[in-house]
Design brief:
Rossmann fold; 328 residues; 2 domains; 4-stranded parallel beta sheet; homodimer; 12 strands; disordered N terminus; 14 helices; alpha/beta
Chain lengths: 328, 328
Amino acid sequence: MTDSVGNVPRTRLSDERIRAARQVIAPVFLNTPLYRCDALERELGCAVSIKLETANPVRSFKGRGTELVASHLSAGEMRSVVCASAGNLGQALAWSGRNRHLGVTVVASRSAPTVKLDRIRSLGAHLELVDGDFEAARRRAAELANEHGLRLLEDSLDIETCEGAATIGLELVESGTSFDAVLIALGGGALATGVGHVLASLAPEVEVITVQPSGAPAMTLSWRRHAVVTTDSADTIADGVAGRFPISAVLEDLLIVADDALLVSEASIVTGMRLLFEHAGLVVEPSAALGVAAILESPDRFAGRHVVTIICGGNVDTAAHRRWVSAL
Amino acid sequence: MTDSVGNVPRTRLSDERIRAARQVIAPVFLNTPLYRCDALERELGCAVSIKLETANPVRSFKGRGTELVASHLSAGEMRSVVCASAGNLGQALAWSGRNRHLGVTVVASRSAPTVKLDRIRSLGAHLELVDGDFEAARRRAAELANEHGLRLLEDSLDIETCEGAATIGLELVESGTSFDAVLIALGGGALATGVGHVLASLAPEVEVITVQPSGAPAMTLSWRRHAVVTTDSADTIADGVAGRFPISAVLEDLLIVADDALLVSEASIVTGMRLLFEHAGLVVEPSAALGVAAILESPDRFAGRHVVTIICGGNVDTAAHRRWVSAL
């Protein structure tokens, strides 16, 4: 669905700024592996390529965006920043901030995976834990920003987070590989709108499909109804995408760039994690298995096609991972 | 130990040919991730960077070399090739040969990991299994080449296998990262002499350290004695490096480029696999854990230094991996 003027989708993003972003982001986050995975193809009935975003110091794609944020901050007067995080954004911001001597505060839910919280601390950020879920962390981060005059980094709303993610889209387009669809984990929407914008702009023939857990469907329901839908709770193992309050501006972009928005079950996510472990040798967090889960739930839709799935994060508690991949 | 004329180590390799190799090798095998791994550093007491060679269609570095071999073959008359393989070379040759419509025969030991044998078959190669170990497979591959007039690809002896591996060295040198030592798994010697040559040539200040299991020490003993030493048996879980008959020409190169050659215990290899799994989220085969094992056994030697370890392969039976990483 490329609601566009000429080829340019009318989102908040611009191709020019996305290209410029690559000059700012640390190379360790760029040009990540993209490769066909034969062993998965036999299981899934379609050609599957993996875009691997976990082989970097923070084991998720979020460093692409935090590099932009931290770079802008380090050039200005305000050298302290706070964000709410399910765990990956906080780690990435801590990494980017540490390298630039910024003050970084991360607010996270007490129930976030231990491995994510430990790494945020070990990267030198100040970590504040809140009761409640990610939305409680968002409220607290906004309070802290107001009280202490900090830059508030809001994932998916702040354009740098989308532009950073969008550089993945450029790499897909420039890979010279032709593919039919890209499956993108949907949480707040930075990854989906960023990558989706680039595909809509430069490869409009490629289907942009977002995938969210049925247990945390707020943004998908919003996309389907063309209006923000919030939910009272989120219940999913995919902690990285368990938001409940979609951001209107992000939804507007998502409506422009996404061709479809799928929901998948927890069982499919677990099976996806197991398949990625057994057949691709990849340890992924639940959010990164959403794409494989979508193929599992709609085999006819993808049969014989070439599908890219973005492995967006690999921060998962070892014991939980072992339980999940051994369960079936 | 850069036994060199000017800066050029007098091995069988040449910088010029290694640079040219990069124009031939499929991009999917090149420019692999190189990143600092903080979580491992706390465990190991030194700065550790990972050069990750597993995020490609054959999950090992061997594709770099087989791309060169297959490219040369596809330009000539002889379009069939046979190799002995512990599993990774065979997979890589099958992949490179399939893309160029070559006939590929792989001879492997019946005791090679099932996952490796299955993937060789699924990539369309003819697989012949032999009783005995890797050395039995080498003899049988030579017989087949003679009988049927096939090109015999000999790992580490054939210069393409070393040149392919050497491109990893170029990437390390060109990364702009400064490091003190590189730990390289030692089997037949292609990886060690290839990467070692480039470091000796372009970054002679970096220590080149090979690591082999104590249970399969033939090449290391040969390096130490400056003469080929064979062993009667090999007993290690690191199936990828379990040769017993070092090749003289490869040893000569290794004597020029390696600064030290370490042996490690099976227990350290297992601990290395577990640390890489728990702290880096990486599923690696035993050979790929040799570098971490070496740090574990000589913490004082590496304390406070910046060490690169090449994660050379990730083809491991899931059940065996689970057993190993759960064992301690």
